[in-house]
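Quick check before the chapter quiz. The format below is the same one you will see on the exam, so make sure you can read both the input and the output lines.
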Amino acid sequence: MTTQAATVTGDVQMRLLQAADAERLSAAYVLNRDHLAPWEPARAGEFFTAAGQRAVIESKLALQAAGQEVPWVLLAGSRIVGAITLTGIVRGPLLSAHVGYWVDKDFNGRGVCSSAITSVLAAAKDELGLHRVQAATLEHNTPSRKVLSRAGFEEIGLAPSYLKIAGSWQDHVLFQRILE
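Here is the expected output.
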């Protein structure tokens, strides 16, 4: 996959995560800590530091090298304003992955996530040869559910106590998109 930036919306670009992104990713998470808290796992303080992000990035890049994950960042100029990642890439007869994403509070409602997901789905199909991408969102996360619907995902069920989000096990609505 190319590391060249691709335009997502007029002022937002998307490129693969790089080791040098730790400081900017840390700043993005600090800025969006309260905004993201209801939708993500509880995070230890170290997560929000540059050192913590360096460790996260090293892990993600190792998984990318192993063909199990593809992490991208979303940028407005040099500022990281979100991330989108294909995780749990499975080969063989399944040819599937999960997609997860977040966008800076100041960029919500501007089509950034919808455009980024469209780009990721194209890469999943054309570059990775995947057949299916799955996503999960909290039942009450209406904006994320709308993003997935606009991207052609179909709801396939409810997973009780699926992920520990904001400190408690929460039900998630499961979605899939068949890439044909």
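If your answer matched, good. The longest helix spans residues 50-65.
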